[in-house]
Structure formats: C-alpha cells, structure tokens
Write a structure and sequence with these properties.
- The chain is α/β, with parallel strands linked by helices.
- The chain has a single domain, classed as Aldolase class I (TIM Barrel).
- Helices cover about 50% and strands about 15% of the residues.
- It has a 9-stranded parallel beta sheet.
- The protein starts with 6 loop residues before the first helix and ends with a helix.
Length: about 280
C-alpha cells in the first residue's frame, strides 16, 4: 500500500526546503483540564511549533518520568479517566483543528487503544484530524494490525529508536514507520538523565543510514533553547516535552498557562530558526 503525504510529511518537506530544523512539542491531553487543552495547543502552534505530540492520559505509564506521570494523574483526576479518555482527547484535537493545521501525533500506550478497538481508534483519529500515532510499548514485531489500519487511513506510525538500537534493528523498525523516527536520546524515562549531545550525535549518525528517507527526531532530556540548538545539528527535529509540561504545571491559572506555553515554545523555535 502506497503511503500518501500527510501533514507530517508535508511539514518535513517544507522544513528541508528552508534548511530549517523542526520543533516537536509534547503536552498531555487534559492537563490540567480537557477544557484547556485546545487553547494550549493553539498557543503552542502560534508560537511556532512544527509538530505537536499529544499524550493520552494513562494510569500505568512506563516511559514517562515523574513530571509527565503527574500530568497524567492530573488529567485523569479532572475528567480524563476511564473508557472516554481517547474520545475526549480526539474531541480536543478536533477543536484545535478548527484553528490550526499544525500536525498532531497521538502519543500513548497500547492498552487504551486495544481496549477501545484499533479500527475504531484509527477511524476516530483520522476524523478528528490526528496525523499519526506513536505507541510507546508496541514493538514492530507486534504492530502489523495497527500499521495496516493507519496506512489505510493515511496516518503515520512513528517508530521509536533508543541508544541500544543496533543499525540492523533500526532498519527493520524504520520499515514499519512513516512520518519520522523518534530517537530517545537517553536510556531511562522522559526528563531523566544528562544529555550528552556529542554522544547523541555519534549514535544518531550511526543510525542514519538505516532510516532511508525517514526524518530523525531526537527527544528526552532537551530542556532549553541552547540544548535544542546544539542537538539540532544532529537531527531533523528536536522534541521537547518535560520542560513544557513542568512550566504549565507551575503556572497559577489558565491565562498564565497559555502565556508560558507560548513563551517557552517561541524561545525554542527561535533557537532553531536560521538567522
């Protein structure tokens, strides 16, 4: 089946033409409330984010550090819990789509997708305006069913690579992916560990030949404009999540949350924009 260009693919093409690196921003749907999520997405897009990863709240995350775990707890405690989590997340994306065409990748775990039904989830994602999915705990050996459904809906399935991924396995993983590949820069969970940019660069360069034309995004441990700029020399896009989620959590009210989201993202995007 031939994959057609969607918003993710088109945005990476635009970035290449401008010789510019992309900025991917993560937030958790429903943190602090689902009512605020579309507005936060709008501010992130307005500030210059090229892509948005929207986390689906889940009670048992395995790849997320304490900051995002707390964001998921807040989301689940304020109306995002239960079987309706995905449906409410899709509603937030649909509301955002009325204002913006910035690509959205749904970021989450397999259990909520499986429980709702993979075919239903993919159809709802497509209809809401989602552009792709990153399923943290789904290895490529087990991803055939959702890969096929996503391809039929023209949605990307973003694969994960880690410092432990060999070039041979990266090649197999990339064959199951579309849109871009996400390289986890440090072993551990989101927001943890010291980011050794030189080491990330060496490892990313070793994996590049295995990815073919698939763009490479790097995340986990990127906290500020300076580290984002340095890291961008080794990839096609930089992912920032924990720093944004933490700033939102520390803001005192809805207006302040929107303001800090805009300001943080604007500073990051400016650091990645050629002068």
């Amino acid at each position: 089946m031939t994959f057609q260009a969607n918003r993710i693919v088109r945005r990476f093409s635009e970035l290449r033409l401008k010789k510019e690196k992309g900025l991917i921003i993560y937030i958790t749907a429903g943190d602090p409330t689902l009512a605020e999520t579309p507005g936060l997405l709008e501010e992130i897009a307005r500030a210059g984010a090229d892509f948005i990863e929207l986390g689906v709240p889940w009670s048992d995350p395995s790849a997320d550090g304490v900051v995002i775990q707390h964001a998921m707890e807040r989301a689940l405690s304020t109306g995002g819990a239960g079987h309706g989590t995905l449906g409410k997340t899709f509603a937030a994306v649909q509301a955002f789509r009325a204002q913006s065409q910035v690509p959205v990748v749904l970021f989450g775990y397999y259990n909520p997708l499986f429980q709702r039904g993979l075919r239903r989830v993919v159809e709802e994602a497509r209809d809401a305006g989602v552009d792709g999915m990153l399923v943290v705990d789904l290895p490529p050996e087990e991803s055939g069913e959702i890969d096929d459904l996503l391809a039929r809906a023209n949605l990307s399935r973003v694969p994960l690579l880690s410092p432990m991924t060999t070039p041979e396995r990266a090649r197999m993983i990339a064959e199951h992916g579309t849109g871009f590949a996400y390289y986890v820069a440090v072993t551990g969970v989101t927001g943890a560990g010291h980011l050794d940019i030189a080491d990330v660069g060496r490892r990313a360069a070793a994996l590049r030949p295995s990815l073919g034309a698939l763009p490479l995004a790097v995340g986990f441990g990127v906290r500020d404009p300076e580290s984002a700029r340095a890291l961008s020399e080794h990839c096609d896009a930089v992912v920032v999540g924990t720093a944004i989620v933490q700033a939102i959590a520390e803001a005192p009210d809805a207006a302040a949350r929107r303001k800090v989201a805009f300001e943080k993202v604007r500073a990051l995007k400016q650091a990645l924009t050629p002068s």
